[in-house]
Amino acid sequence: MNPPCGRCSKAVYPTEKIGCLDKFWHRSCFSCEVCKMALSMNNYRGFGKKPYCSMHYPKSSFTTVTDTPENLRLKQQTMLNSQALYKEDFERSRGRGFSVVTDTPEMQRLKKTQDLISNIKYHEEFEKSKVRSDAPPPENRQDSEQQQQAMFRPTPGPAAPVATAPSGGAVATRRFQALYSYSPSDADEVSLQVGDVIVEPQPIDQGWMFGLNQRTGQRGMLPANYVKLL
């Protein structure tokens, strides 16, 4: 006996039978429930044991859960459980304290490298400061002119040494000797080495003097506290 069609309920013969969705269909009856577009086994989509095309396939929609007393009670219980778990984790983490970094060979190597870099930088700065480490700093150029002039004022006592000029006249000489080495920081300054003799001195204000270095022939400014009167 031939089975009935799932749509028209008429008998379906084997030559036109389509078996799908637990039913048998005529080829002409196997169409979309909405638009009646003819379907095949390759493009149909089943829902509720009925064929649909892709355009009219029913889409599932989520329903909103009603806030019934039971749902509210479950929601509150869930929140309480979450707070209890959070507090438990917090109390557990407080007991751990700070973690200690393992002193692995790699950490030891990094630490040693950092120490070497620090030592190198320290020695570089030390070598730079050695140039003037044994010398007092030049006086600030804010000293008064009266203090500098007092340094060059002759003191009572024997007369200063004089040099006899070829013509027979007397020319007073006043010389200073360098106590420390000095590297000039401006173009108008002269360099000094320990023992250099400075002639033709001229007092200027702010802790500096002007003179001629006999060794180098340079003429310019130099710190007055780097030299002594001969």
Can you describe this structure?
- By secondary structure, this protein is of the alpha+beta class.
- It is built from 3 helices and 11 strands.
- A 5-stranded antiparallel beta sheet has the order 10-9-8-7-11. A two-stranded antiparallel sheet has the order 1-2. Strands 3-4 form a two-stranded antiparallel ribbon.
- A hairpin with a 5-residue loop joins strand 5 and strand 6.
- The protein is rod-shaped and about 150 Å long.
Write the layout of secondary structure elements.
Blueprint: E1 17-20, E2 23-26, E3 45-47, E4 50-52, H1 69-94, H2 105-130, H3 145-152, E5 162-164, E6 170-172, E7 176-178, E8 197-203, E9 208-213, E10 219-223, E11 227-229
Antiparallel strand pairs: 1-2, 3-4, 5-6, 7-8, 7-11, 8-9, 9-10
Oligomer kind: single chain
Radius of gyration: 54 Å
Question: Helical amount among residues, as a percent range?
Answer: 25-40%
Number of E-state strands: 11
- Overall shape: it is rod-shaped
Strand content bin: 15-25%
Distance between the termini: 144 Å
Largest sheet: 5 strands, antiparallel
Summarize the helix and strand pattern as letters.
Answer: EEEEHHHEEEEEEE
Total helical segments: 3
Biggest sheet strand line-up? 10-9-8-7-11
Name the structural class: alpha+beta
Mean pLDDT: 76
Poorly predicted residue ranges: 141-146, 148-171
